[in-house]
Amino acid sequence: MVAELINTGTELMLGRVLNTHQHWLCRRMADIGYPITRQVAIPDSGSAISEAVRESLSRAELIITTGGLGPTSDDITRERIAQLLAKPLTLDNATLDRIQQFYRVRKIVMPERARVQAMVIEGARIIENQHGTAPGLAIQVQPNNVRPDGKPALLIMLPGPPRELRPMFSESVVPLIKALLPLSDSFVCRTLRTTGLGESLIQERIGDDVEPLVSAGLDLGYCCGPSLVDVRLAARGTQALRMVADAEHIVRERIGSYIFGVEDDELPELIVRLLTERKQTLTLAESCTGGFISHQLTNVPGASVVLPAGLVTYSNAAKSTFLHVKETTLAEHGAVSEAVAIQMADGARERTGSDYALAVTGIAGPSGGTDAKPVGIVFVALAGPRGTVVRKYFNPYDRQTFKQMTAQQALEMLRRELLK
Amino acid sequence: MVAELINTGTELMLGRVLNTHQHWLCRRMADIGYPITRQVAIPDSGSAISEAVRESLSRAELIITTGGLGPTSDDITRERIAQLLAKPLTLDNATLDRIQQFYRVRKIVMPERARVQAMVIEGARIIENQHGTAPGLAIQVQPNNVRPDGKPALLIMLPGPPRELRPMFSESVVPLIKALLPLSDSFVCRTLRTTGLGESLIQERIGDDVEPLVSAGLDLGYCCGPSLVDVRLAARGTQALRMVADAEHIVRERIGSYIFGVEDDELPELIVRLLTERKQTLTLAESCTGGFISHQLTNVPGASVVLPAGLVTYSNAAKSTFLHVKETTLAEHGAVSEAVAIQMADGARERTGSDYALAVTGIAGPSGGTDAKPVGIVFVALAGPRGTVVRKYFNPYDRQTFKQMTAQQALEMLRRELLK
Known about the structure:
The structure is a homodimer.
Chain A: E1 3-8, H1 10-13, H2 20-31, E2 38-42, H3 48-57, E3 62-66, H4 77-85, E4 89-91, H5 93-105, E5 119-121, E6 125-127, E7 136-141, E8 153-158, H6 162-180, E9 187-194, H7 199-215, E10 219-225, E11 228-236, H8 240-255, E12 259-262, H9 267-278, E13 282-286, H10 292-298, H11 303-306, E14 309-313, H12 316-323, H13 327-333, H14 338-352, E15 356-362, E16 377-384, E17 387-394, H15 399-418
Parallel strand pairs in A: 1-2, 1-3, 3-8, 13-14, 13-15
Antiparallel strand pairs in A: 4-5, 6-7, 7-8, 9-11, 9-12, 10-11, 15-16, 16-17
């Protein structure tokens, strides 16, 4: 199946915004068995849109466009595609009603230009927009139109704002694609998320055992992030479900303790969920991660219940004032040491009365390293009902990667403790 | 000038990674006057690369590819393009020496496969890689080759890792493009970064005055982020420099106090620089932003010198324990109140002895709002040598946007105080 994605937007071409649609849609399409084979971004001006759609129609059975369906003058996707397909645009009264209702509820006068969003290309289905005004459109392009190869194609137009596009895609577009372009073979995809083992070590541990499945057609892929490796298992055909299940069984048997989740799971969400279920609390004491762990956890709704406090204690004085780290320990071992990490965790736990405390102290760089304590060194301490433990890690990377890896390692220490 | 960007990588097509190259390169290219007119992403398998390059050659005078120059079996960009251009690949000894040296310095045995990175397409220039092994390549494609229109094109191949690509681009590729494809007209671009005014208010304040310049050819654009509007001024031709300077003068006259920086400036960098210059310190007391402001500031190298501590005090108990907020104030006004914000800031400043303290308390949502204090309400207090001030903001958006807007507002309060 040739499936292509066309992102429109001059702000993309000027490098003003990140193309998150590409990332999000490619991930979803791959996971349902329709990987995008080509993605194109073009400005929303001139003839770029018609040219890009015409080219895609010459190759692809499935084409998704994003952007250009709104009410302003640079929203020209709908018109350009209607022209290209030589189909008229007609006003859809039910859609106009919904758009008027959208403005009425918000007590805003509907601008005249907003009516254009109720125009529908002849023969297109309307994909309702629950979170905005512009509906999506889906049209089956017949071979007698602009298709050179005599095969029909499915062309789907989605609005640009992610909060509108994402629910429309999940709720309406996925079922539509599956109904109109059924896969000839069944497709199964499973992602296992691991932390704590490098890609090559994982390959070493599981490679030989999954090899027969790979030879039989299993698609085994790795994707690495900071202190993170996703193991992606995918297969097509009548045996797909069994093959992926067998592969998952092998991976779990070999490296199960390193798997923290599946699909889109993230460690911060998992930690907040585990603590919430147990009605337990966590306090953070961060030095070199500078509040990043706290930021990650507080991105999760409901975090305030399980996280009474997080302390970013950069200076020695702050470590003593807020965490009661002893000045003699700081003088004797230095701020970046096992002993100080332990006292930070113990102090944080004691001062808030929380069930657990995580403390990190290290050297994020680029400066501040020494031969004995080079840039990248970090101590992570975990205090809890069963006592306090400390581990040393070495993350000699740029500041942001250092923070991400250290946060992942610290949260993983807590995950393992919570699941003991 | 038609300029196209081709990003290769199967991980892009599976939606495993964000395409940051597109964002970064499009921004740089636009700012030097060569905006990318089309960007394409394709998998690094099969014939997709040769097809995409062939198509781009039929349209563009300038083509940049990213990825596929490394030593592994899916790094096929170099070979596929050599085939397409019908040019041989030959080993470049100086490049091989550099690659061998790269491994020797790191005390790693060079894998045999790494040699392939020293292969050069006949007629190509080598773009040295100071941060990795694979050099970039630049080749002028002659019309007698695969160009249908009889015009030569410049084809530039860059390696995938951002920490290799970015310095190569800035140091070597920009001068090369300017030398080999000089713009017929001079081009000037200037971005003014503002915070605190919405896009429509900015348009209202500057629109009439810049209108004559826009009519004369000035390109005026706005790009909005959370509590942020970039005003982009660009012009071509002999009058470009004067037009952009005149426009900047008008914008600064009308909304100068809202401009915090130019080009890629960010508020956290600016705050760390201002505090460093003045040898002053800042303590943070965050509730609803959950450590995000602290995280942003500590992303800046050198932040540890000016930021002794950041306190994330979610619970009332933590506000009392660490910031000495009075229990009576919490009981009387609630945690989300002017009175508590002021006590948080005063407490943070007093307890660390820092010159300034910023405190935020609000309701990030999605739950926790009331009629009197709805989701999105936030109080920001700033304590400093000149006393303590507090402001109320309303940011009724999702959690992440709420954090970003509030952080921007808090740092802007401090910027204005520091520049008084």
